[in-house]
Amino acid sequence: MRTPLASLLLISTFLMASLAAQVMASPKQTHANNSKALVIAHRGASGYLPEHSLAAKALAYGMGADYIEQDVVMSKDNALLVLHDPYLDRVTNVAEIFPGRAREDGRYYAIDFTLAEIKQLEMTEIFERKDGKPKQKYPERFPVWKSSFKVSTLAEELELIQGLNQSTGKNIGIYPEIKAPALHRAAGKDISLAVLKELKKFGYSKASDKVFLQCFDAHELQRINSKLMPKLGMDLKLVQLIAMTEWGETLRNNAMGLKPEPYNYDWMMKPGAAQKIAEYAEGIGPWFPMLVDRNTGKPNHMVQEAHQAGLLVHPYTFRADKGQVPPQFKNFEEYLAYFYNVVGVDGVFTDFPDRTVKLRDSL
Length: 363
What we know:
The protein is of the alpha/beta class. It has one domain: Alpha-Beta Barrel (TIM Barrel), CATH 3.20.20.190. It contains 13 helices and 14 strands. It has helices at residues 7-10, 17-25, 54-62, 94-97, 115-118, 154-168, 181-186, 191-201, 218-232, 273-277, 302-308, 332-343, 353-362, and strands at 38-41, 67-74, 80-82, 127-130, 133-136, 152-153, 173-178, 212-215, 237-242, 251-252, 261-262, 283-286, 312-313, 347-350. The strands form 4 sheets. Strands 1, 2, 3, 6, 7 and 14 form a 6-stranded mixed beta sheet that branches. It has a 4-stranded parallel beta sheet with strand order 8-9-12-13, with helices on one face. Strands 4-5 form a two-stranded antiparallel sheet. Strand 8 (212-215), helix 9 (218-232) and strand 9 (237-242) form a beta-alpha-beta unit. It is globular and about 50 Å long.
């Protein structure tokens, strides 16, 4: 899941800091103002270690996250990889190890590489090339290329979490996301079926299991609900992720079968949408500015209608980095408190699970 810099523009109409301070002083009892409100480690403890590294997942586990997220893509030889994007160049040294393997758009797609090739790569913090040098997206985070991290498989990560569950006596959940199913389908790969089979292999098959399965692609989520899970004898909790249409998060062929067009998410933010989503999912994962009115900064209809439809609300992504906390709030904790106490969400995706756990528990 992504949070563009434009977020600060959209949320500039939030309530002023004085109101946020009032929220901290006098918590309002809401649907989510209790110990059941979840802390979901977004790509692990990604505020401290490279996202989706096993080290980041172990740290998130130790910090007390309730669920740990896994974004899943596929390799050329059908391995399930824990990687936020379908391409490798954003967090690995693939351009140096395999020069000339980029597609026409200049990106190095995981689906074009075997697992053995991907295991040769080193993974680091998010970076982009500036004047031929890597520039870190979040400068305060773990420095780029200062240690050797590797892209892991979904199986490797599930083994880690389940192993820690056994050794600690806890039961920390998982929160996998099926990435770019249309891209994989175009390459002849059914990533949704593959992920479901892997989850079932590791014992995740029932609605009561500690797993949420999320996807931005509404058609794919409906297919998972109505066709794939019944076929496999599974009944997992599904979460509909919600993006801004202009992000192009989900591309689908138009009616003429010509150039793919972005899926239109606008309907998901309109009154009455929750009832439709509840027909195939148990929760929604909106971008957090979607939950407040742009003019007043107060909660809009989305959370209330979701709860009335029986849906959980888990917005993304709460970051404490410089420039990521809306200016109306004095600090990260006030920012979180507003969404837990006033907006009334049931959990949040965060890069900083330790600070989020501490704030949630203080409420």
